[in-house]
Design brief:
This protein has 307 residues and is an alpha/beta fold. Helix content is 27%, strand content 27%. It is built from ten helices and 17 strands. The protein has helices spanning 41-48, 121-124, 128-141, 158-169, 183-188, 200-207, 222-226, 243-248, 260-271, 288-296, and strands at 2-4, 17-19, 29-38, 57-62, 66-74, 86-90, 96-98, 104-108, 112-114, 149-153, 173-178, 191-195, 214-217, 237-239, 252-253, 279-284, 302-306. Strands 3, 5, 6, 8, 9, 16 and 17 form a seven-stranded mixed sheet that branches. A six-stranded parallel sheet has the order 12-11-10-13-14-15, with helices on both faces. The protein is globular. The structure holds NADP nicotinamide-adenine-dinucleotide phosphate (NAP).
């Protein structure tokens, strides 16, 4: 098959497609013909070597954790998936290097679900990693419910835009920080925009004078620092970027894990029109260097590789 395969860590411009051995399909895995793979910040952090201490690495390293595509093979212990089926998944194993920026990827069933029927592969590939992160923070940890107010720091990024929609679907009010250029987009998702930077805590208090019920921090730094003082009562604070910082403030660090049942929840929300991914651009796999360069530059929506 053809894949983005790296012999050493490198910057986006070093990424290139070449011939690579087809994946092995384990007993409880599904072979997926990749149609689309959205780019997440963690992908280029892995390509640059920033997660070297966190996971065993198989070289040559093929990056990519999000996938949407078609089942072209199943392992002998697999039930519930069949050739020709459209699937989407968060193909995160306990190692890195056998990723989705390829024509084929072998995905354990715990990482995979039937794709939303209402989305094409490009849009579906934007949901798994970012959507599961938002779900696990908002539902599993913060248990955000009807009538509550949740503050989302970085509310219009890949994770934030899905978190706002999930919280709204659960009946919560959402106050979100974003730059001015993204304020209307946040309003279109049902969130109430607050500019980040100097004075942000006062602007949040102006909208929620009694404090917010829960905070989801997707950016760290000053946003995390200010968060305990914006909560109505302590503890309902999650960060996905600063493990030590959030724990020191009585909150919880979330690192997204694969969950097939929750992928099903995301698909149901998408098919109900409650969860709409924001696709910025698509690039053929061969243009991976340009695609990652664009993603790193801080565009609002997802940049997606098509295969
Ligand atoms: N722990 C986990 O499991 C996990 C999972 C997913 C992602 N992450 C991490 O979480 C972070 C966000 O991921 P993502 O995919 O959402 O990234 P993204 O799509 O690149 O979005 C980043 C967002 O941050 C906003 N931003 C920048 N500075 C800000 C500030 N000071 N206050 C508020 N917003 C600010 C930007 O908004 P503007 O354009 O409006 O400035 C942008 O929308 C990344 O560091 C990623 O690696 C962790």
């Amino acid at each position: 098959m053809r894949a983005v395969a790296m012999d050493a860590y490198g910057e986006p411009e070093a990424l290139a497609v070449r011939e690579h051995p087809d994946p092995k399909v384990g007993p409880d895995s599904v072979l997926v013909r990749v149609r689309a793979a959205s780019i997440n910040p963690v992908d280029y952090k892995i390509a640059q070597g920033y997660l070297d201490g966190a996971f065993p690495v198989l070289w040559p390293l093929v990056p990519g954790w999000d996938v949407a595509g078609e089942v072209v093979g199943v392992g002998p212990a697999v039930s519930g998936f069949a050739e020709g089926q459209q699937v989407f998944g968060y193909a995160r194993m306990d190692h890195v290097g056998t990723g989705t920026w390829a024509e084929l990827v072998s995905v354990p069933v715990r990482c995979l679900a039937p794709a939303p029927q209402s989305l094409d592969a490009v849009a579906a590939s934007c949901l798994p990693l970012a959507g599961l992160t938002a779900w696990q923070a908002l539902v599993d940890v913060l248990a955000v419910g009807e009538g509550e107010t949740v503050l989302v720091h970085a509310a219009t990024g890949g994770v934030g835009s899905l978190a706002v929609q999930i919280a709204r679907a659960r009946g919560a009010r959402v106050v979100g920080t974003c730059s001015d250029r993204n304020a209307d987009y946040l309003r279109s998702l049902g969130g109430e925009p607050v500019a980040y930077g100097d004075g942000m805590p006062d602007r949040v208090r102006a909208l929620a004078p009694d404090g917010v019920d829960a905070v989801l921090d997707l950016v760290g730094g000053d946003a995390l620092e200010a968060s305990p003082g914006l909560l109505r009562s302590p503890g309902r604070l999650v960060s996905i970027v600063d493990a030590d910082g959030v724990k020191a403030r009585g909150g919880t660090y979330v690192f997204v894990r694969p969950d097939a049942a929750q992928l099903g929840e995301l698909a149901r929300l998408a098919d109900a029109g409650r969860l709409v991914p924001n696709v910025q651009s698509t690039h053929p796999l061969d243009d991976v260097a340009a695609a990652v360069t664009e993603a790193v530059s801080g565009v609002r929506g997802k940049v997606v590789l098509t295969v």
